[in-house]
Design a protein that fits this description.
2 copies of one chain form a homodimer.
Chain A: E1 3-11, H1 15-33, E2 36-42, H2 47-53, H3 61-65, E3 70-75, H4 84-87, H5 92-98, E4 103-109, E5 127-133, E6 143-146, E7 154-162, H6 163-179, E8 184-189, H7 197-209, E9 216-221, H8 222-231, E10 238-241, H9 243-256, E11 264-268, E12 276-280, H10 297-309, H11 313-327, H12 343-353
Parallel strand pairs in A: 1-2, 1-3, 3-12, 5-10, 8-9, 8-10
Antiparallel strand pairs in A: 4-5, 4-11, 6-7, 11-12
Helix pairs in contact in A: 1-10, 1-11, 1-12, 6-7, 8-9, 10-11, 11-12
The complex binds 3-isopropylmalic acid (2 copies).
């Protein structure tokens, strides 16, 4: 289809500053590529909302946004007033769970004009995807405390993996690898230390691989895998990982390419039973919030991924070209990339380039 | 004391190749610094032993090595014949648990002659310790499987943190930070995702910090912390982390300094109720085993840490100077560092330099 209703949730901190630029670029792309986009803005899913209402979202949040074609999300969290495990679990993580967005998809890519902290790497050298399981695993809320307040105090938290949950993320990752030129998959494990869930993960990878004879694959323990991201990032094509390991790898990957401030992510329900959610990898960044200097590219790149998901690959590619063009100009890059632009200047430039 | 009985367990793969060099250097240091070292070698704790006896260690292993002053360990694991979770849990991890070696201590340090994968860093720029909880946390063997072999199959594994376990590792880390010039501690958390155990960890850090008013401290979520290791490794002084997070950070730290092939580690029981164990961070490396080309410096540096632990700081410093001297010569470095030496040449050179 050509008509899409987008739910916009800016959240907290710099989320509220980069979101307008994201929407600006999407509107430009909609015009150029003839897409009919409607934006509905929601106040909930922010710490401000929590302070007013005592909960992160209204009881009927699902009715309000469940029928949108996608959710365009900024960043959530303001640890000084609301503990992270309340703000996140009451919004972002609840979307991921209730809308069964079981794939988190995050690219790590060396971009022109973006200095990498790694020595001797240039654009083209590093280009891989982290596919993260997004609904179970280490992020369970199952567990509790015993003997509270005493010397014998213990806390327990369970990691839960289901066959359904593991197989569907592996399938998505193998499918993605199969579509890419190198057709290579890397699985993150830790079966030598995490002795129950991780051997199970390995077992399911072995099983799934049988259905993809044209995809080569290997596995690394998470400790040495993080080391390999730094030492040999060019080895990777598609990296599939559990919820926690994927969380780590999808920050570390963009850190290695210098793109942590501009990396995008998709929280995807591949069956399209529920809306998928697109958000920058960066958080609400209380330290720079309110200054208008945040880099809007993570938000804008996430918007491009959203259009791709909605079937508009041409619009996605157009936005990506505009981003790469603007990145080459010092006047149009933000300060984190050694440029002189503020959030709005950079966003406008990308919209114009589209 | 001046007399120490060392239990030597070489293990598998390159463990058996680097161990003789480690012992050679220790013997040289013993002579120079007037230390009386006795070495007792044990065959168990290796996959060879497992294949012969059906278990990694004899039933009376504790009697055999429990009265030694320290254990000098190589590397264990041979995944083609023995699954890692058997070989590791039946040796290394059992030592850590049964000898209550609750501190894993691992330095990340830029060394002369060792190229770092990070751009623009030089010796002196990076110099920190990772202090890892080594006996509980994510490495529990508690859990299991339900509905095996069906579509409803689930596996569960528990993370267990005790107040005793968390407090004692934090105390060790704060004590260490207090002794260092910068007196700074960083705590690794993930309380925004791992919603039960990690907020508890944070709570205990806050509490412990009150007893160390002269130590400054901060905390990072593990995802962004791995990114910071790559982007700003000079920020860190002492980094304290749970078992899993510490495992990751103590591979990633040395990867950033280019020293992953030569990083040492101590598994320490600070109360000296049980022997502590010293081993290189690298594993048994089946891919290069049997060729005599492995870098022995991880084993040798671990030996230096062992002497330090036994009270011989002068001998530790002497070995470290010898390592730094040998690293500067291409003929004496191994191939992983662009040198031309084999394992034995490098080991002998360090022994001579001592
Ligand atoms: C081999 C493995 C069980 C071990 C661990 O994870 O503790 C290793 O990675 C280490 O860091 O010593
Ligand atoms: C904010 C936090 C709960 C979240 C996560 O860990 O999933 C974030 O780090 C991310 O990667 O989207």
């Amino acid at each position: 289809g050509n008509k899409h209703k987008i739910a916009v949730i800016a959240g907290d901190g710099i989320g509220t500053e980069v979101m307008p630029e994201g929407v600006r670029v999407l509107e430009a792309a909609a015009e150029v590529y003839g897409i009919d986009l409607t934006f509905d803005t929601f106040e909930f899913g922010s710490c401000d909302y929590y302070l007013k209402h005592g909960q992160m979202m209204p009881d009927n949040w699902k009715d309000q946004i469940g029928n949108h074609d996608a959710i365009y999300f900024g960043a959530v969290g303001w640890p000084d007033t609301v503990p992270d495990h309340i703000s996140l679990w009451g919004s972002l993580i609840q979307f991921r769970r209730d809308f069964d967005q079981y794939v988190s998809l995050r690219p790590a890519k060396l971009m022109p004009g973006v200095p990498s902290p790694l020595a001797g790497r240039k654009p083209g050298d590093i280009d891989f995807y982290v596919v993260r399981e997004n609904t179970e695993g280490e992020y369970s809320s199952v567990g509790g405390k015993m003997y509270p307040g005493t010397d014998r105090e213990i806390v327990i938290q369970e990691t839960v993996m289901s066959r359904v949950g593991v197989d569907r993320i592996l399938k998505y990752a193998f499918d993605l690898a199969q579509k890419r030129p190198r057709k290579h998959l890397t699985s993150a494990t830790k079966s030598n230390g995490i002795s129950i869930t991780m051997p199970y993960w390995d077992e399911r990878v072995l099983e799934m691989a049988k259905s993809y004879p044209d995809v080569t694959w290997d596995k690394y323990h998470i400790d040495i895998l993080t080391a390999q991201f730094v030492m040999n990032p060019d080895r990777f094509d598609v990296v599939v990982a559990s919820n926690l390991f994927g969380d780590i790898l999808s920050d570390l990957g963009p850190a290695c390419t210098g793109t942590i401030g501009l990396a995008p992510s998709g929280n995807i329900n591949p069956e399209r039973k529920f809306p998928s959610l697109f958000e920058p990898v960066h958080g609400s960044a209380p330290d720079i919030a309110g200054k208008g200097i945040a880099n809007p590219i993570g938000q804008i790149w996430s918007g491009a991924m959203m259009l791709d998901h909605l079937g508009h690959t041409d619009a996605h590619d157009g936005i990506m070209r505009a981003i790469e063009q603007v990145l080459l100009s010092k006047e149009l890059r933000t300060g984190d990339l050694g440029g002189t632009a503020n959030t709005a200047t950079c966003g406008k430039a990308i919209a114009d380039a589209v």
